[in-house]
């Protein structure tokens, strides 16, 4: 019998996950289908009841449900529990188990660019759900310094207070972060600033970026944000959000199937899909 997988969110029509996962099912001859499900906030409880009833094999979770879904699940893995957000659910013999592959996907994408974290000085821009997952996962890798720049310091302070891993950290406003930019080896941009259609915006001036720094922006439309373009002009290494998206998806696929998928085939499928969307 064909297994059903999917992704829930609102909005969801833009998601590239169905194309990516259905391509993998075809490559590995798995009798399964991955379907997007538009689920509004008020319908989340009914959607999960429905998934249980039909025996869905697994699904991804995106905005705005990553936190709200937690009480509707049977278990959380330790990282998802620490982060307080779920982006992947595995059905293990009828039990829905919540996991988080966002942070691990980001770190794997960094390693793919030959960027290590150990003993590095890192600045994370933003304090939303993605920033939280990335902060916790980077903190586990023992950086020398892990700061957060955010408009509202309370949200950033909450991340520092909740993190179970000991790491030197500060909360900075934009001005202080820009003044201190030459401190950092790695800068991770996790906000939506610079995303299509507002491609002229940037969350940070890179005027004081140090030579040899690496700048990663988790946005992938456009493939090069204003921040990345300006960082490249300053001689920095740059990375867009494709790596994180592909690796978090690969980790979810492996949880569901036991197969470590072909990353390059996944990347190519995503880039092909983006070809019709990029502006």
From TrEMBL:
Protein name as annotated: Shikimate dehydrogenase (NADP(+))
Domain Quinate/shikimate 5-dehydrogenase/glutamyl-tRNA reductase: 114-192
First-tier enzyme category under EC: oxidoreductase
Residue span(s) of domain SDH C-terminal: 241-271
E.C. code: 1.1.1.25
Subunit structure, as described in the record: Homodimer.
Top-level taxon: Bacteria
Keyword NADP: yes
Binding-site residues for NADP(+), renumbered to this chain: 126-130, 150-155, 218, 241
Gene name tied to this protein: aroE
Keywords on record: Amino-acid biosynthesis, Aromatic amino acid biosynthesis, NADP, Oxidoreductase
Any single Gene Ontology cellular-component annotation: cytosol
UniProt xrefs under Pfam families: SDH_C (PF18317), Shikimate_DH (PF01488), Shikimate_dh_N (PF08501)
Stretches assigned to the Shikimate dehydrogenase substrate binding N-terminal domain: 7-89
UniProt signal peptide: none
SUPFAM superfamilies: Aminoacid dehydrogenase-like, N-terminal domain, NAD(P)-binding Rossmann-fold domains
UniProt keyword Cytoplasm present: no
Active site: 66
GO biological process, one term: shikimate metabolic process
Pathway: Metabolic intermediate biosynthesis; chorismate biosynthesis; chorismate from D-erythrose 4-phosphate and phosphoenolpyruvate: step 4/7
InterPro entries assigned to the protein according to its UniProt record, in alphabetical order: Aminoacid_DH-like_N_sf, NAD(P)-bd_dom_sf, SDH_C, Shikimate_DH, Shikimate_DH-bd_N, Shikimate_DH_fam, Shikm_DH/Glu-tRNA_Rdtase
Annotated function: Involved in the biosynthesis of the chorismate, which leads to the biosynthesis of aromatic amino acids. Catalyzes the reversible NADPH linked reduction of 3-dehydroshikimate (DHSA) to yield shikimate (SA).
Chain residues that bind shikimate: 15-17, 62, 87, 102, 220, 248
Family in the record: Belongs to the shikimate dehydrogenase family.
GO molecular function (one): shikimate 3-dehydrogenase (NADP+) activity
Catalyses which reaction(s): shikimate + NADP(+) = 3-dehydroshikimate + NADPH + H(+)
């Amino acid at each position: 019998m064909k297994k059903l997988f999917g992704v829930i969110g609102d909005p969801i029509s833009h998601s590239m996950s169905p194309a990516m996962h259905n391509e993998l099912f075809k490559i590995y001859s798995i009798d399964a289908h991955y379907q997007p499900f538009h689920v509004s906030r008020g319908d989340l409880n009914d959607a999960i009841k429905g998934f249980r009833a039909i025996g869905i094999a697994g699904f991804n979770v995106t905005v705005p449900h990553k936190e709200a879904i937690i009480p509707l699940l049977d278990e959380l893995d330790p990282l998802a529990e620490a982060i307080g957000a779920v982006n992947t659910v595995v059905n293990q013999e009828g039990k829905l188990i919540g996991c988080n592959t966002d942070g691990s996907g980001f770190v794997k994408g960094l390693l793919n660019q030959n960027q290590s974290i150990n003993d590095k000085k890192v600045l994370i821009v933003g304090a939303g759900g993605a920033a939280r997952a990335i902060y916790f996962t980077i903190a586990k890798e023992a950086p020398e310094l892990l700061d957060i720049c955010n408009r509202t310091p309370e949200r950033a302070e909450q991340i520092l207070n909740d993190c179970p891993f000991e790491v030197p950290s500060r909360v900075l406003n934009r001005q202080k972060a820009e003044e201190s930019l030459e401190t950092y080896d790695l800068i991770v941009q996790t906000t939506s600033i610079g995303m299509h259609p507002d491609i002229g915006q940037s969350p940070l001036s890179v005027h004081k970026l140090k030579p040899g720094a690496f700048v990663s922006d988790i946005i992938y439309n456009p493939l090069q944000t204003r921040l990345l373009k300006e960082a490249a002009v300053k001689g920095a290494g740059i990375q867009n959000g494709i790596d994180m998206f592909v690796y978090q998806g690969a980790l979810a696929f492996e949880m569901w199937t036991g197969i470590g998928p072909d990353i390059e085939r996944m990347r190519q499928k995503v880039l092909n899909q983006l070809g019709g969307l990029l502006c």
